[in-house]
Amino acid sequence: MTSRCDVAVVGAGIAGLTAAALLAAEGLEVVLFEAHSQTGGCAGTFRRGPYVFDVGATQVAGFEPGGSHARLFRHFGLSLPQAHRLDPGCSVRLAGEREPIRLWSDPARWQQERQRQFPGSERFWQLCALLHQGTWGFAGRDPVLPPRSAWDLGQLLAALDPGALASGLFTAATVADLLRLCGCGADRRLRRFLDLQLRLYSQEPADRTAALYGATVLAMAQKPLGLWHLQGSMQELSVALERALLAAGGQLRLRHRVHRLRGSIGSPNPTGWRLEGLGPAQRPFALEASEVVCTLPPQALPDLLGEQLPGGYRRRLSGLPDPSGALVLYGAVDREQLPTDLGLHAQLEWAEPGNLFVSLSAEGDGRAPRGQATVIASVFTPARPWFDQPEASYQRDKQRALAGIQAGLEQLLGVAPERWRHVELATPRGFAGWTGRPYGFVGGLGQHPSRFGPFGLASRTPLPGLWLCGDSIHPGEGTAGVSLSALMASRQLLAARGRTLRLRG
Ligand SMILES: Cc1cc2nc3c(=O)[nH]c(=O)nc-3n(C[C@H](O)[C@H](O)[C@H](O)COP(=O)(O)OP(=O)(O)OC[C@H]3O[C@@H](n4cnc5c(N)ncnc54)[C@H](O)[C@@H]3O)c2cc1C
Questions:
Q1: Which of 28, 72, 345, 355 has a CB 3.0–4.6 Å from the CB of 6, allowing a cystine?
Q2: HSE value, Cβ hemisphere, 13 Å, CA-based, for 227
Q3: Where is 496: in which H helix or E strand?
Q4: Residue 488, Cβ neighbours under 10 Å: how many?
Q5: Which ligand 1 atom is nearest residue 326's CA?
Q6: What pTM was computed for the model?
Q7: How far is the CA of 339 from the centre of ligand 1 (A)?
Q8: What is the structure's pLDDT at 328?
Q9: Tens digit of pLDDT for each residue in 98-149?
Q10: pLDDT at 264
Q11: Which among 348, 355, 354 has a CA at the least distance from the CA of 415?
Q12: Distance, CA 381 to ligand 1 centroid (Å)?
């Protein structure tokens, strides 16, 4: 049966939930389609016996007053999910070293730590702080990036101030350029630390991360910003957004995978979009919507749109570099096996299969029985090679990756392989299945100067009534980032209807 609504949103990760809740709260009839049996996508969870594992995202930014999640929850009139600020936000261990570099939440303590760890680097950190101040105020005024219409440009210009314009002089620079400018270009140890941190947030090392983006992520763990650990699990964030959507009258259709988007572009009587797909028990469904917000990675658009994708746009999409895939170990151990001086999140510089980002559960946080802890270790990996191989060699590579990650965890945490109570590994194949993302791509397009902010992929597409948000759209990956991209696309959609969306409070 075909039905009709104002806006169909495809994908109920954090981007889709946020966009759907925002638009429903503005009185539009919204239907949110989610292929999975639950919401959350890369920020969802799954259960194994007594354990609850966060699938992808494990720590959250944007919970501070004025932060993106905080602003949105205030707008929805809801409390933020229960969470505690991480201190340290992360402990970073370089290869061959015992003592980690700890990203303390107190700025003065972090300054002492970095001066001790990286003598002579303070000018670099001060320059990063200046750039961050310039761009953070700008980001908080909700610019539209990259602009594709007069309205977009107006929003961008309105967000500029002298600080943002001064920072803008560094638009083409990388973090490695800042190091050289500050006389730290030869500091190999600092560079290794920065490469580890930046790869985690921008998919790129220091010499390929845009300076303006890097300056902000390097300030993320310190007050007045911060990183948070959710009580219960990461799913709490999605569940709270579901509540906002349903309270505003929006509809959520789980187990509905959208296969085709057909627009009536160019027809004499444009009616908008028709979405077709398969629902529960593989039953076909169809829905007509005036507009569509798609939160899937842009690499999914050629399949969804088929011949309707304009040639120039198709070429733009096929020219995008492949995002990363992820290998993620989900494990559980007795808590007494774990060191007590790392905090809940750590990084290890590690060769095979790559640098590890490790997240531990806290006692009583709902993820493991008392006296035990979940351990999640993720590594970025090129995604396609995991698909282009026969099953036997895939299984061999998977076992090798698992052994490599366990060896890294033995080094970092002191947990010997036989001590694991539970262990399993997800590869890009698993992420493709879980999230419906082509090749299990995660992490967006990366924050190279040629692709970030003004040079990124726009939320406004050349197809009227089709809007994009999610981790390939400004400001990029992370739950805080994708919720801002959802806000941007929702504001554009409403502006095209002559409406203004202003967040309450
Ligand atoms: C290993 C890993 C670690 C991470 N760590 C962190 C972290 O600590 N902190 C942080 O902030 N971020 C982290 N991230 C990034 C963060 O998880 C993502 O940037 C964010 O969750 C992406 O949200 P999204 O809504 O854009 O996309 P997704 O979460 O991918 O949501 C897309 C949704 O669309 C659904 N879908 C797909 N195809 C269809 C279809 N055809 N029809 C209907 N529905 C469909 C999917 O099932 C999914 O629910 C991590 C990611 C990974 C992979």
A1: 28
A2: 25
A3: helix 479-496
A4: 26
A5: 1
A6: 0.98
A7: 30
A8: 98
A9: 999 999 999 999 999 999 999 999 999 999 999 999 999 999 999 999 999 9
A10: 79
A11: 348
A12: 17
